[in-house]
Amino acid sequence: MTDILDALCATFPEAKLEAVQNPSPSAQHSLLADNAHAAAIAAALRDTHGFDLCSNVSGVDWPARKIKETIVRKEVVDGEEKEVKETVEREIPGHLEVVYHLYSVAKKSGPFVLRLRTGDRENDVAVPSLTPGWKSAEVQEREVFDLFGVRFTGHPDLRRLLMWDEFADHPMRKDYVAPDDYEYEPTPHDEVLERLKARGVQA
Fold first, then answer.
1. Same structural domain, 47 and 133
2. Rounded to an integer, what distance in angstroms lies between the CA atom of residue 201 and that of residue 199?
3. Are residues 102 and 119 in the same domain?
């Protein structure tokens, strides 16, 4: 990862590239690329670094969240300099991510994990499509669009894959609320009746 990141930073000095560490036992670290340079970086990963196979494209929903951080500062207390710890709360804006798992068939190596990130979860939800680099990403990007709401600019056929065209929501969003009943199955079976009763609705 480090060698490839260094090479990409040298090739694209204006790009914003960030190594995202994975603390889990898999230690499957990833590279977060800015959207403006994503297509060029993808082409370099394929052509220069040999990642000729995109095996998986998935989405991740990151709602806005608050984290607590400890700040250590030095203060003079009773004429003596001391370290003072203060806990502050910071809000991280929500966003969506698209994660690509890349392999090199020739070198028998991988995965190399590439991430793209939207500006937010509501209005700025576009990232560039990487289908020009890997045809296998086409259907999987459609799935991420359908279930998470990410819009892939430059995608050759961006339309819903699993949900019907009139469906308004994105079921894999963490704040998605399933309806009490579904239009294609209007029979009020026991589970539906329980949901309706919980909301005080007479079926």
1. yes
2. 6
3. yes
Tell if the pTM clears 0.90, that is, is over it.
no
Structure tokens of 45?
């990963």
* Same domain as 145, residue 65: yes
Concatenating the DSSP letter of every residue in 39-101 gives: HHHHHHHHHTS---EEEEEEEEEE--EEEEEEEEEEEEETTEEEEEEEEEEEEEPPEEEEEEE
Three-state DSSP class for residue 40? helix
Cβ pair 203, 189 in contact under 8 A: no
Q: Which of these, 25, 40, 32, 23, lies nearest to 1 by C-alpha position? A: 32
**Structural domain boundaries enclosing 196:** 173-203
Kindly state the percentage of the chain with pLDDT values over 70. Answer: 94
Do 159 and 177 reside in the same domain of the chain? no
Angle at 48 between CA 44 and CA 53, to 5 degrees: 75
Structure confidence by residue, pLDDT tens digits, 164-188? 888 889 999 999 987 766 655 555 5
